[in-house]
Structure formats: structure tokens, C-alpha cells
Write a structure and sequence with these properties.
Layout (H helix, E strand, L loop, with lengths): L1 H9 L4 H16 L3 H14 L4 H7 L1 H49 L3 H6 L2 H43 L1 H8 L2 H38 L1 H6 L3 H54 L4 H19 L1 H22 L21 E10 L2 E11 L4 E6 L5 H6 L9 E6 L2 E2 L5 H6 L1 E4 L8 E2 H5 L8 H10 L3 H5 L8 E2 L8 H13 L5 E5 L7 H12 L6 E5 L3 H4 L4 E6 L2 E6 L1 H7 L2 H10 L13
Parallel strand pairs: 3-10, 3-11, 6-9, 9-10
Antiparallel strand pairs: 1-2, 1-4, 4-5, 7-8, 11-12
Helix pairs in contact: 2-5, 2-7, 3-4, 3-5, 3-12, 5-7, 7-8, 7-9, 7-12, 7-13, 8-11, 9-11, 9-13, 11-12, 17-19, 22-23
Length: 591
């Protein structure tokens, strides 16, 4: 079974410990037949045998030794069981730790497509509940199966030695029990797969709701969200109940069969004792060990349920474990070169799941140039810049950086040469200083301040209670939209990249601040090619060239003056943005 092979593979480092635990389980469980055996000796020698009274007088030492033996073996079993559980826990916790780190690395190494397709809640479920289920199966399910089987086999062997016929009578019950258990397992399995999916949905809703709490509050949709959550919660709970109730359909049969062991033992065992074929002591050993046959049958339901949960969880974990990204970062660029910053799109077409979003894009950017990209929302601007750091790969054509196809460049090196300030600003729960120095944690404090100044962020940071040491909440809570954008800009500048990509980074700052930022960008003390997505003409006007996108195609390209003279899309936007503030446009596009 592949899942068990996978478990074995991940036990590496703890295999010896786990095997010792399994062996101790077998030894400990085999010892369960010792006390019934001693009991049998005591009954036959001192209670029910023909010489019992005599033996009680003459062999007191033996009686005490047998009694002490019983206590001793009980203590030994308890000690073994304690030690065995310790080993199982150690091995399973170590495996959990290793697999969790491995999965986290795997998730980190996935490309954007993976994150587009996988829900955060589902990934969280895999990293927590599913992993714990796998650990539980290693530490408890396998242990229980091994111990139940050993007790079962030891009891059967012992019974055979006493009386083969009575043992066969007892074993008659085993096949129907296994058939019932098998049917139950088949029926319940899809239920646990479904249950696992519902749990993931519940986690997704919880995660989205907490992450989006501001939107929920802004629209006063708390009740709607509570109802949505309640629905999913009821859904999960119902599925749980349904799976648990299935067991009730089978439970009576298994219980009857389990009771059957005792009934058969009482009837046939009693007859055999009356016939003198077995002694009272042997009969008492049968009675004492009969639980070894009936107990595994009783707990078969719990074991099967847990096994099904294990399969549902391990399958989900293996999806992450074996997922390989189409765009992989191998982190093997020994020396990272600094690029010049030349960019070319050579007949690039891009599709999201078959839907064309960019078509036949051609342009060149020379090192040090500033290019502005403008276009209606959804025209493909973000998609276009996403192709440069290879967040996605083009379906057709090539994206070249410094003359080399990005697919041939070392990903780490490529991304290390690009500073990006994305449209949705995400700051980490860390100090402002830590956020700005994210790409270069060893950066001295004065450099952090320098880049904050360039991004027009220094003044407001200084006024904060703890300045650069102020901790910003999750996703930058506690800062205005414009403040977050400026910290994100400082973070992108702080890596001093030869290629800087700004996706609508100044949309939320006032015009004066924007002017300051533009001045800083013009005067950077390192060589840098800049690609700026912007909607404001005040931002694009300064660029060396402006590219206008419409429905994934370039419809205009040129300088501010050239595009105004063209009287096309750019001219219309310019007119719209300047209407009402008294500016006029002359034939040369000058303000
Ligand atoms: N991850 C994705 N999966 C599928 N389709 C996507 C994805 N991201 C964007 N799209 C689609 O691709 C098209 C271009 O999106 P893109 O984000 O590049 O536009 P944009 O010009 O940057 O828009 P905006 O100015 O609103 O940010 C849109 O139709 C969008 O719905």
C-alpha cells in the first residue's frame, strides 16, 4: 500500500525506534497469556484439582510464587506498555515535525498557479489536522492493530494447546466478523473523504472571514457570515454524525458475534469440563483469555473509522508532498550576478487556464529607462509585469532579461534582481524596520531610513510612537493605505534592484507626496530600469515611454507628448483627469 510506504519513508531517522516499539508491542501483548496460564495452574493445583486441599497445605510456597508471578508479570506489562507508548510518541512526533517542515518548504516552493488553485483554508487543514491524523495513526492505530492481532494469535495458539476442537468452534465466528467489518469499511470510506472535504471548507470560511473582517464589518454582513459559517458547520457536523451512525448499522452484528464467543465457550467449554476433557483451570484460562478474541472484534469499528480518516488525510498530505511546481526555484545560483536591466517582450501571449489575457506583446526597455504602463482595469497590466519575475510563464513568445529568456535564468538570481511593490500591499506582523529590510535583513538602520525617505515614508514613521520599531499588525493594520504603499515602496527600493516594478504603488498617496516619490525615483543612486503601472497622468508623464494596454494588446506606445498628439486613449485619460482644474492641452501635448 503506497500510503504505508510513504509513512515508512518518512520515518527515516526513527525507524529503529519504531521497530523496537512494534517488537515491544508484540512482546507485551504476548505476555497477556501468562497470567491466565498462572491462573489455570492455581485453579487446577489449589482450588479444583483432586489434590487441591493437600496442595494448599504442602505447596504454599508454590502458591505464593504463582501469586507473586502474577503481580510481577502485571507490573512488567505495565512498564513495557509505558515504555512502548513513549517510543511510539517519540517516533511519531519526530515524523510529524519532519513532514511539517518538508511540507512548509514545498508550499513555499510552489508557483503562483498553485496558490491560484489552492484555498488557504485547505492548505491550513493539511498542515494541521491532516498531519495530526497521520501522527495518530502511527502512534495509536498501528499500535492497536498490532497489539490486538498479537493477543488474538497468542490466545488462539494457547487455546489450541488446551483443546483444538473448542478453539475451532470459537473460530467459526471469525469469518462472518471479518466480512461484516469489510462491508462496513467499504461503506464508510467515501464518507470520511467527504468529511475531510467539509472540514476543509469550514476552515476556508473561517480563514476568509477572519482575514476579511474589515469588509464584513464595513458591509454589516456579520449575520450573513455567521449564517454561512453555521451552514458549513451544520454540514460538517451532519456528515460526522452520518459517518458515526453507519457504525450503528453494523455494531449489533459485531456485538452479537463478540458475545457469541462467550456463549460458545460457556456451552462447549462446560460440556468439555463435564466430560473431563479439559480441567477447571483450563476452562478458567479460556474465560480469562476470551476477551483476546472478542475485544478486537468490538474495537474493529473504531479502528476502521480511524483507518479511513487516515487514508483521507494522508491522501491530502501526499498531494502537497508530491506536488512539483512548473516554475521551480532551485536556489543554486552560487554567485548572483547583477543584471543590467534590459527587458524585452518578444511576441508574448499569455493565458490563464486557456483564456487569452495578453496577445502578441512586443516591446523593449533599455537599462535605466522608465516605462509607464496604463490601461483600463482588467486590460492585463499586472499579468504583463508578472511575467518578468516569472510568477507565470508565457504561453507563446519569450520574455528576455539582459537578452536571455527568463526561463533559462536562475530563478533566485532573476528575482533577486527585481524589486516589486505589488498592488495589494502585504506587510508582515513585524516592526516597520523589519518590513523595509525584508529583502536584506542585514541592512544597517541608516539605510532603512534612507529608503524610507526616498519613499516619502520617513516623516510619518518618525511620528509613530516607536518610530521604526513600531510593530505593524497583520497585513499592516494600523497604517493608512498610502502609508502601507510607501512602506512597500521602501521595501522594494531597499534591495537596490536593477529592475524596479511598481504596480499602482502611489495610487493612494496625495499628489504632493507622489511628486516627492517621483523625484526620488529619478535620482536613485543605483542604476535601475523602472516599470510603473499607473492610472494617473501625473505619474506617467515623466516616463521615457508609455505603453497603453487594451484587452491584452498594446494599442499605443510613445512619450507623453507623442501620445497626447495621437489623441487616442491616453489623450482621453489626460483630458478627463485635467478637466475642471483649468489645464489645457496644446497641440504638442504640453501643459
Ligand atoms: N490568477 C488569475 N487567474 C485567472 N484569471 C486571472 C488571474 N489574474 C487575473 N486574471 C484575469 O486576467 C485579466 C487581466 O488581469 P490583470 O490583473 O492583469 O489586469 P490589470 O490590468 O492589472 O487590472 P487592474 O488595473 O484592475 O489591476 C482579467 O480579466 C482578470 O480577470
Amino acid at each position: 500500500m503506497f500510503q504505508f510506504k510513504w509513512l515508512w519513508h518518512n520515518l527515516k531517522g526513527d525507524r529503529a525506534r519504531y521497530i523496537i516499539a512494534l517488537c515491544l508491542s508484540v512482546i507485551g501483548s504476548s505476555l497477556t497469556i501468562i497470567n491466565p496460564y498462572i491462573g489455570q495452574r492455581i485453579v487446577d493445583t489449589f482450588i479444583a484439582g483432586s489434590d487441591a486441599a493437600q496442595n494448599l497445605r504442602d505447596e504454599r510456597g508454590l502458591l505464593i510464587a504463582l501469586g507473586l508471578g502474577m503481580i510481577g508479570f502485571s507490573l512488567l506489562r505495565t512498564g513495557l506498555s509505558y515504555f512502548t507508548t513513549l517510543l511510539y510518541e517519540r517516533a511519531s512526533q519526530n515524523m510529524l515535525y519532519r513532514v511539517r517542515i518538508f511540507l512548509y518548504n514545498k508550499i513555499q516552493g510552489q508557483d503562483m498557479k498553485y496558490y491560484d488553485r489552492n484555498r488557504t483554508g485547505d492548505l491550513m487543514t493539511k498542515m494541521t489536522g491532516d498531519l495530526d491524523m497521520v501522527r495518530h495513526s502511527l502512534a495509536w492505530i498501528i499500535k492497536t492493530i498490532i497489539e490486538s492481532l498479537t493477543v488474538f494469535v497468542a490466545a488462539v495458539v494457547y487455546f489450541f494447546f488446551i483443546d483444538a476442537e473448542l478453539t475451532l468452534w470459537l473460530l467459526i465466528l471469525s469469518p462472518p466478523i471479518f466480512i461484516v467489518a469489510f462491508i462496513f469499511a467499504r461503506r464508510v470510506r467515501p464518507m470520511y473523504v467527504d468529511l475531510r472535504e467539509r472540514l476543509s471548507q469550514l476552515n476556508t470560511i473561517t480563514q476568509e472571514n477572519i482575514a476579511g473582517n474589515r469588509v464584513v464589518k464595513a458591509f454589516a454582513r456579520e449575520e450573513f457570515e455567521i449564517n454561512k459559517f453555521t451552514d458549513k458547520s451544520v454540514n460538517y457536523s451532519e456528515a460526522n454524525k452520518k459517518a458515526a451512525l453507519v457504525w450503528l448499522d453494523y455494531f449489533p452484528y459485531l456485538e452479537i458475534f463478540s458475545q457469541g464467543f462467550t456463549v460458545i465457550l460457556l456451552i462447549s467449554g462446560g460440556l468439555l469440563v463435564m466430560d473431563g476433557r479439559i480441567t477447571f483451570g483450563e476452562f478458567s484460562a479460556f474465560s480469562a483469555l476470551i476477551w483476546g478474541l472478542s475485544n478486537p472484534m468490538r474495537s474493529i469499528g473504531i479502528i476502521i473509522n480511524d483507518i479511513q480518516r487516515f487514508f483521507a488525510s494522508v491522501t491530502k498530505i501526499m498531494e502537497v508532498y508530491y506536488a512539483s511546481p512548473e516554475i521551480a526555484n532551485h536556489h543554486n545560483a552560487a554567485v548572483k550576478r547583477r543584471y543590467q536591466g534590459r527587458i524585452q517582450f518578444d511576441n508574448v501571449t499569455f493565458k490563464y487556464d486557456g483564456v487569452t489575457v495578453l496577445e502578441n506583446i512586443n516591446f523593449k526597455i533599455e537599462p535605466g529607462e522608465t516605462i509607464a504602463i496604463m490601461g483600463a482595469t482588467g486590460s492585463g497590466k499586472t499579468t504583463l509585469i508578472n511575467l518578468i519575475p516569472r510568477f507565470y510563464d508565457a504561453a507563446k513568445g519569450r520574455v528576455l532579461v539582459d537578452g536571455t529568456d527568463v526561463r533559462k535564468l536562475e530563478l533566485d538570481e532573476l528575482r533577486g534582481n527585481i524589486g516589486v511593490a505589488t498592488q495589494d500591499v502585504l506587510l508582515f506582523s513585524d516592526t516597520i524596520d523589519g518590513n523595509i529590510a525584508y529583502g536584506n535583513p542585514d541592512m544597517p538602520e541608516e539605510d532603512v531610513v534612507k529608503f524610507a525617505r526616498l519613499a516619502a515614508a520617513h516623516n510619518f514613521i518618525e511620528k509613530m510612537p516607536e518610530g521604526y520599531n513600531t510593530i505593524v499588525g497583520e497585513r499592516g493594520v494600523g497604517l493608512s493605505g498610502g502609508q502601507k504603499q510607501r512602506i512597500a515602496l521602501a521595501r522594494a527600493l531597499a534591495v537596490q534592484p536593477p529592475i524596479l516594478i511598481l504596480d499602482d504603488t502611489t495610487s493612494a498617496v496625495d499628489l504632493e507626496t507622489e511628486e516627492h516619490i517621483q523625484k526620488s525615483l529619478r535620482e536613485l543612486d543605483f542604476a535601475c530600469t523602472k516599470i510603473i503601472i499607473a492610472q494617473r497622468v501625473s505619474t506617467t508623464a515623466e516616463a521615457d515611454r508609455i505603453i497603453i494596454l487594451e484587452n491584452g494588446r498594446i494599442i499605443e506606445e510613445g512619450t507623453h507628448a507623442e501620445l497626447l498628439a495621437k489623441r487616442g486613449y491616453y489623450y482621453e485619460v489626460f483630458k478627463l483627469q485635467n478637466e475642471g482644474i483649468g489645464r489645457e492641452v496644446n497641440a504638442h501635448g504640453e501643459k
